[in-house]
Amino acid sequence: AAAQETNKTYIIGTDVTFAPFEYKDVDGEYKGIDVDLLDAIAKDQGFNYELRPLGFSAALQALESNQIDGMIAGMSITPERQESFDFSDPYFESGVVMAVSETNDGITSYEDLEGKTVAVKVGTTGAAFAESIQEEFGFELNTFEDSANMYEDVLTGNSDAAFEDYPVMAYAIQSGLGLKLTMDPEPGDNYGFAVNKGQNAELLEMFNNGLINIRANGTYDEIMDTYLGDTS
Ligand code: GLN
């Protein structure tokens, strides 16, 4: 047979609880938009991968230290991150939004956060945004490793608000989580697949090529429809 590349299996990190992008289903399987996009792109491009739900900040660290080859985790493409990572073309539009308990009518703007406590997830753009306005509006921060515990802290009343990605927060609220949104999301956020800077260029190229193909053949829309239905 002709010389063939070793059949490399790429290790891809993801978040633990970030529905509808990645979440553990009742059968213990990981499901979601990111999971299905990666799978469809891998099939289209003919590469093998193994998905590792490490948590968001743990996956960032694993990628930066080359313990994993890539990351798909509803990860926002930001100028700061572009110094450490190479991103694919954007595949989903997002934005940070503030959520409060559905029984809380006292917080309808950032001004109302004075003297309050805000829950954030470590290493996220939501945490970075909260930090960027913390001094101006005078609130405390509670930091969590994952989104489920961050929401729980608001539901129990320990934190007054949480900063989370709009599509994820809206999906959770639609699924019955007792939180609500009182403001529009911050604009200008897009998700991308990431590799460590200067590493795995071939994987990044395959992701981009596969993304073009699954957009063209309808698979991308099918995946969005599966998880977002009429809201997409
Ligand atoms: N989009 C946000 C970020 O990149 C949150 C991602 C996540 O929590 N999985 O920081």
From TrEMBL:
Subcellular location: Cell membrane
Principal localisation: membrane
Keywords of this entry: Amino-acid transport, Cell membrane, Membrane, Signal, Transmembrane, Transmembrane helix, Transport
Highest taxon above the source species: Bacteria
Single Gene Ontology MF annotation: ligand-gated monoatomic ion channel activity
One of the GO BP terms on file: amino acid transport
The keyword Cell membrane belongs to this UniProt entry's keyword annotation: yes
GO cellular component: ATP-binding cassette (ABC) transporter complex
Sequence similarity: Belongs to the binding-protein-dependent transport system permease family.
Name by which UniProt lists this protein: Amino acid ABC transporter substrate-binding protein, PAAT family /amino acid ABC transporter membrane protein, PAAT family
Organism of derivation: Carnobacterium viridans
Coverage span on the entire protein: 29 to 260 of 484
